[in-house]
Structures are given as C-alpha cells and as structure tokens.
Amino acid sequence: MRNGKLLVLAVLMSTAAFVSAQQAGKPKPEDTEVWSPEPPVVTPGATCGAAPSDAMVLFDGKNLNEWVSAQDHTPARWVVAGGVMTVRKAPGVGNIETKRRFKNYQLHVEWKIPADITGSGQARGNSGVFLASTGPGDDGYELQVMDSYQNKTYVNGMAGSIYKQAIPLANANRKPGEWQTYDIVWMAPEFHADGSLKTPAYVTVFFNGVLVENHFQLKGQTLYIGKPFYKEYDRAPIKLQAHGDKSEPISYRNIWVRNIP
Length: 261
Ligand code: MG
What we know:
By secondary structure, the chain is mainly β.
C-alpha cells in the first residue's frame, strides 16, 4: 500500500508539473508589454504649430540670430518686422541658412505668399525650404515653396513637392495672403566610409495639416537640371531660398525644429 500511495503522489506531481509547464508556455498579455525606457515628457504647444517644450526655436519673430547668409556665412540680411521675416530683394542678399547643423529632425515652418502676388508658373512666390544645405555649390534637398493656389506649373515643382522628384499627394494650398504651414520629418541619407550611399533620405510632409509626402525616398539632391544623385554629408544647415525672380517677397514665421534621436 505504501508503494501505491507513492505512485499516486508521483502521478499527481508529474501532472501538476505538466500543467504548470503548459501554462508557462502559453502566451500572456504581459509578454508583449514594454514598460521601459519611458518616452520623455513633452508639453505640446498651446495652439497647433506652437513650439513644444523640447523644440529648438530657429525664428521666433524677433531676430535672425540663428541664421546666416548661405553664400558667405555673414549675418543674414532678410527683413525682420512685425514678428515676421521676409525675403529681401537686394544685390548680394540671397539664401539664408541656420548656424546649427542637423541630421534627422522634425521641422515646423510657416510661410506666406503676399496677397498682391504677381507672375505665373515658377515665377510666382517661389522660395523653398532646403532640408539639408550641403554647400553653396550644391543643389541640396528642396521642399518647394510657391503659390500653387491657382497657379499651374509642373506638378513635381509645385508647393508641397520635393523639387523634381515627388509630386505632392494633394494640393493643400491656401490663398495668397494667408499663412501656411509645413510640418516635416527629415531622415537624412547615410553614407559608407568611402562616401557611397548606405541609406537614402526619406521625407514626410504635412502641408496645412494635410499629408502631401508620405515617407518619400529621395533619389538624391533636387536638381534643376539632370538626374538626382547623392553627395556625402553628415550634418547640414536648413536653408531658405531667395529665388531671385520678380515675385513679391515671401514671408516666414514660427520656425522650430526637434532633433530625432
Ligand atoms: Mg524654390
């Protein structure tokens, strides 16, 4: 009888072990819960487009301290008045770029075409946000700024386009005279040690809150003429374009950026 009791006990124990092993192998909700590290707390701006707490403000309406002339890195000479900076038409005054250099980032830019804009096609409110300004001799990577409200031009050169590479998914232009917003995610290209391309650049753009570029893979710099190609860089300034045509000057305000780790 003693042996019989031991046998029952052994059977019970092995059954319990089998059941607990089965339970152990069964997926539980906790298996897929991630608790750390916790994302940093960021206080959103009070209104849509206002800089969040961890943003680097590149233009707050007061001065051009964060900007230089792209050509020679002398102080930027666009006009600042009424909380707005405006492309200045004068000899020797051209594109401006940030003093700081960036790699992957989120960028907010507001821009306005004057209400009394004249001209047509590419000569109507042409400016641009260069997502990486890799040098005065380079074309860089341009997100087009222009009046495309009721102004025909090639669609891969209209507002919201990645110049001559990506047609915007929608025409979300407001009328000339109204402020417009770009919210941009720029993932910079990566290069091998020998300068060859490792990973292309990707860009996502919301234009007045409307998705116009969805994780678009760039073919290289946005060239005026010819096929795009990449040229090695690590970090680069963000540049604003003084296009230099006869259009009325374009204004910018509320520009901020957040580095993407
Ligand atoms: Mg342009």
